[in-house]
Amino acid sequence: MTFPYKRVVVTGLGAVTPLGNSVSAYWEGLINGVSGADFITQFDVTKFKTKFACEVKKFNPEDFFDRKEARKLDRFSQLALVAADEAVKHSGIDETNANLDRVGVIWGSGIGGMITFIEEMKNFNMGDGTPRFNPFFIPKLILDIAPGQISMRYKFRGPNFATVSACASSTNAIIDAVNYVRMGKADAIVCGGSEAVVTEAGIGGFNAMKALSERNDAPSIASRPFDLDRDGFVLGEGAGALVVEEYEHAKRRGANIIIEVAGGGLSADAYHLTAPHPEGLGAFNVMKNALEDANMKPEDIGYINVHGTSTPLGDVSEVAAIQRIFGDHAYNLNISSTKSMTGHLLGAAGAIESIATILAVNNGIVPPTINHFTDDPSFDPRLNFTFLKAQKREINAALSNTFGFGGHNASVIFKKFAE
What is the pTM of this model? Predict the structure, then answer.
């Protein structure tokens, strides 16, 4: 199959995560197997079933924004702007080397400004019923304000919108951005996602669904994908940003090309509100679609950064899909879940996990799945889950999976860049 599309490369990366507030700090935490989980500091957890999460640490908005500006931004937008700033600076793209009418922003978030919504409703309920709302309530709350804010900061006037597909949101944003560039609709796009829902409603809501780990005696070992005793995911927060760019455009402006985006796939489980298809049908289809879009065979993939949330059903269905599509080659793969360290960033998960996947390819190091204590007989022991320690290996191409409530699935493939 010959693509009629333009080649798309990555020229910038940015990250704010529970392991560190830059790409380098994030990567160092990953390869050293650091857990970002700890007791929640943002609200009183006394009466909550889960008292811990993977919060972003040492993040002071006033280090990045003046006080007046910070008050106009929900935390998910603050995180977005900081990650995007690192990516844009890393890329070096600006008005001197690009037509800003053809530089866009596509950004994902599963929930958006939850903190703002909670604060405004608390204030309203404390009053006498008179509606006194902050004039920035709606602009702070809506999901599309993050890409809007990024575009305004850098005067990027190309395609600009938000993607919402639960935990697949930021992978959706990356794939949409790649397709706009491939089709010649833009020269470059800042894409990724952010989430900030470590809140009373976030923890309480997921607790009500019995989705979260309740291992309050040991938060740092609570996220344990593929372990027999996994009991749910650990909620995380943060942001990840990529600058994707048309290859010839990047070359003309002398950009540092990090990696090539080979392709991406989308699918739906069409099965259940929150549970994955028991046979992993949606996961199988999305990986199949990504491989076809990338014009690759299963044997071309060396590493999969799996969705791997540490839930009893989700981990099983994803592995079943991997074994079905990769066949015997599944035993040659490195598989790892970086959620064992970062927790689950919901709509931002795909962005930071894409960055982890890119860095794994470029550095020849697979980040581990930490917190493995007991083998689960549900999984084939011949599979390499990269338990406990990072592993060195040559990787030419790698795949990142993200699956969301509602049955939304998105997978993206990155490959080593070659002229």
Answer: 0.97
